[in-house]
Amino acid sequence: STVLSVTAMEPPEPVAVELGVTQGWSRATPAGAQAAGGFMVIENPTLVADRLTAASSPRAASVEIHEMADVNGVMTMRPIQNLDIPATGQVSLQPGGLHLMFMGVTAPFVAGETVPVTLTFQNAGVIETALEVRPLEGAAAAPATATAPAGEAAAHGDHSDHGAPSAPPAN
Fold first, then answer.
1. Distance between CA atoms of 65 and 166, rounded to whole angstroms?
2. Does pLDDT of 159 surpass 90?
3. What is the pTM of this model?
4. For residue 3, what are the contacts with CB-CB under 8 A and spacing of at least 6?
5. Please, what sign has the CA dihedral across residues 143, 149, 151, 155?
6. b/e string for 72-83 if b means 16 or more Cβ within 10 A?
């Protein structure tokens, strides 16, 4: 007697797309600011293109994908629905170009903190990331160690006693 073995063909698995999100940052915002920009690099090392379809953050009422363009010599900014991430490529979100726009910011972005962001992709699904908040450009952003040798800034004091009368010497 002959035994015949039949194996059913399984449907192909969905292609796993693993994206990398790096160099995430935003700028500190002044008190009362209702909007902030978000910047990062989205890398797609796979052979399958993907698409950023949504973004959100607990720090804003909404997060939109925006692009800036030069239209007849005037820089314009507009929301876009999706952002294509090419296969084996990357997309940089940066000032003056593609970026995330935090609308209805719930509290100022403060230099040194991080802002959580949820990115939703067509294939890769949900990716949680955080943006480092950098000081506003032109602000006194250098840490004390940039102007004083290590340890000296703390030992040097806060200068609050300048101009105060001297205490009599202790006997």
1. 60
2. no
3. 0.70
4. none
5. negative
6. eeeeeeeeeeeb
